[in-house]
Write a structure and sequence with these properties.
450 residues, alpha+beta, 2 domains, four-stranded antiparallel beta sheet, three-stranded antiparallel beta sheet, 16 strands, globular, Replication_initiator_prot_A
Length: 450
Amino acid sequence: MSGKLSRFDELNLSRLNLISAVDQADTTEWDVTFESQGRIVRVQCEALPKYAIPHGLDSDVTAALINLFIEEGEPEDGRFAVSATKLLKLCGWHNTGKYHSSLRLCLERLHTTSYSVSGGWRDHPKGRWTHAKFHFIESLDFSSSDMSGAFDERTVISGRLADAIVASIRGGYVKPLDAEFMLSLSRPRTRALYRILDGARFDPDNPDVPLEQMEVNLIAWAEQCKLPSSIPGNIRRALTSPHEELIKRGYLRAVTITGRGRAQTIRYEFVREFTPMDPVLARRFRSYGVADGVARKLVRDLGRPFLIESMDRFDDLVRRGVLNVKKTPAAALIHLVNHPDEYPYPTAPQGNQRPANATGGRTEVLIPMPGIEQEFDQLSLEQAAEKAIGRLNFHFRNSLDAWDLDHLRAAIIAGRIDVVSLLNDGMAAVARSAKGDFVAQLRVQLGKPQ
C-alpha cells in the first residue's frame, strides 16, 4: 500500500474547542455560553492550579490520541497503550528530554482537567444534542525509571479516553484532518486555530460538506478560541500571526475584519479543496455508511484502485464469516483500509480455531496470519516493538499494564523475544480463551516480580 494514513478529528471536540489557542496559559478555568442553531450551549473547563487550563501543545496531544485510538481499532472501553517514543512522533515532536517532559505535563493536564458541556454535545447516530461531563483522559498510567515519574526512552503509557469521546468516534462523528499539514505549522497557537477553523467549517447536522467561507463576531470568536482577552485590539493582535501563516500556507484565501469595537466581525474565506469521485465509488462508500468527506480524503490519500480492492476484500471476508461486523460497516471498512496487513484472506479454520468477534464490532482474526514473518521482516526492532504493543493491547488491554508493555517493548528491541512467535502465541491464546495463561507466562519471561 502506498500513501499516508488518513487522519481524523472528532467533530464535537473541534467544533467546541476545549484547548485554548494560546502558547502559554496561567488561568485555571473558563466558562463560555453561546447560541447555536436556536440552542443555548454552555461549555465549562476547570483545571488544577498546578497545570492551568489545557492550551498550546495540548492540541497536538489530543489529536494524536484520537488517531491512536482509531488506529488501535476503536475499542469499546476506550483504552489505549503506546510508547512515549511513538506518541511523540504522532504529535510531530522531537524525541528529546524536553519533549518527554512536555508530553508528561500535557497528559497530566488532560487527565486532571474537568469539562462540562450543556446541550451542545452531538449524539450523531441518534441526531440529538446531549450533556456531557468528562476528563479527556479518564485514567492514566505510565512506566518510569525513577520515583519522579519522568518519561524516558522506555516509557510506555496506557490510559482510557472519556466515554463521550469514545462513543462519538465509534458513532462516526468524525471529519478528515490533514495532520501532516497541521503539524507542519510553526506555532502551537497556529495549529490550534487551524484545527478550530477546520472544525467550524462543518455543519454539525450535515458534516460531509465543508463551508467555503464563514463570518463570526470577533468577541464570540475569541471565546470560541478560548483567548484570555475580550479587548478587540488584543484579540486582533493574537490572531494576526496565525492568520498570516494560514494564508501563506494556502489554507485561507483571505481574512477580512470589519466594523468597530465589539461589533467587529471576521470573515474567513477558505481555499477550496475538493477531490472528485466517480458516482460508482461514491455510491459504494455510502452503502457502508462512509461519509463523503472521509471518502474524498481516502481517495486523495490512497487512490481509487487500492480502495476498490479493499472494499472487495472486505465484502469477501464478511460473506465468508471471517469478519463479523457488530457496530458499523463504515468503521470496520476504514479499519481494514488503514490496517490491510491485519486482514489477510484466511485459511480454512482448523480444529477449534475460528474467528471470534472483538469487543465493540472489531473482528479478531484468530487464525495464524499467513505472511506475518514477511510483515515484520521489513521492520526495525523498534518498529516491530511498537506494532506488537498496539496489536497485543487490542486483545489484552485489560490484562497487560504499563510495566508489562514497557518491559515487553525493551525485550523485543533487545532481541530477547521473537515478535512473530509472541503474536502467534498471543492469538492462539485468544482463540483458546486462555488469555490469563498467556499473560502469566509472558510475565515470567519478562521477570516481573510476583
